Amino acid sequence: MSLTAALRDLNKLNTFVRVGERLSFTKAAADLRTTPSVVSKHMKELEAALGFSLLNRSTHGILLTDAGEGLFQSCLQMLSNIDGYVVETRNLQKGPVGTLRVQAVSDYARHVLAPVISEFVNRHPGLRIHLFASIDGATASGDGFDVIVAGSKPSLPGLVDRDLGAVQHVVCASPDYFERAGRPKKPEELREHNCLVNLVSASKSWPFKAGSRVAQVAVKGTLSSNSHAVLIQMALAGDGIVRVPLYAVKTALADKKLEEIFEGATASPERMRVYFFKAKHLPAKTSDFVQFLRASLGGR
After folding, report:
1. DSSP class of residue 213?
2. Beta-strand relationship, 224-225 and 195-198
3. What residue numbers bound the domain in which 52 lies?
């Protein structure tokens, strides 16, 4: 449908939108760097061309008429569509630019995300990434972030997510601990051992594969923490048995400072997901990063 000649005058439409936002000729004129008389003149000419009133003028101020409110909302929608087109076109032309703010739990950020982010930034020199590492197991707040990597959904409206895959866990302890306390041969024997538990994510039981199902084994111990890094240090010191993500202890296992038990029997129901805010025109810095994460980490 073609526009009328009046609606093709973008200068007058721009003036009308500013008047509708400010409900004042004086304030609209200041924004547009013109005079209130010019603003008033544009409004009268636009109303005359359209054939209906847009504004109710009185000594108390300016209000939009019903017709004016309808046109005002239509103009806002049009501007939003234009903004979306500009963002999308810039993304296609420039790729990821600006600053991407990422939130993730600290151990996962250090062991898994850091090398992936480094590679992504090297591919896109126009992009800066701020990685905020929160306490292990803490619920992500998401405030002020573009992307949140977490095991549970943050309590924020409008989020969508993509799977990054399961987080493999291992049960392990130092050789010193096993020499002193013995090596359990089956998960049920953990009840007789000092287990270092995570206060946030797994404080009462650890999951193990039992045929086609998962069995929970109750554990307890004299030491606990809300940080995987702290629990690992305790295990390295010979204080007990720990269940932690494999990525956090790969080096210690390879160096024989920790030894895994129940290999292949430890269940890993935890999954990591990447969360971001749903948008019709998602910035390239966000969409490309999410795709890169999934390709690098094997998410489906």
Report:
1. E
2. parallel
3. 6-93
Question: 182-194, pLDDT tens digit by residue?
Answer: 999 999 999 999 9
Q: In what order do the strands lie in the sheet with 195-198?
A: 224-225, 195-198, 241-245, 169-173, 259-261
* Residues whose CB falls within 8 Å of the CB of residue 53, separated by 6 or more in sequence, listed in order: 47, 65, 67, 68
Q: Residue 196's closest CA among 151, 156, 227, 159?
A: 227
Q: What is the CATH number of the domain that holds 220?
A: 3.40.190.10
The answer to whether residues 137 and 278 belong to one domain is yes
**Structural domain count of the chain:** 3
Cβ-based neighbours of 27, under 8 Å, separated by 6 or more: none
Residue type, 260: E
Between CA 251 and CA 27 the distance in angstroms is: 64
Tell me the two tokens of residue 79.
């501007």
Strand segments, DSSP code E, in the chain are 55-58, 61-64, 98-105, 127-134, 147-150, 159-166, 169-173, 195-198, 205-210, 213-218, 224-225, 241-245, 259-261, 271-277
Tens digits of residue pLDDT in 124-142? 988 999 999 886 555 555 5
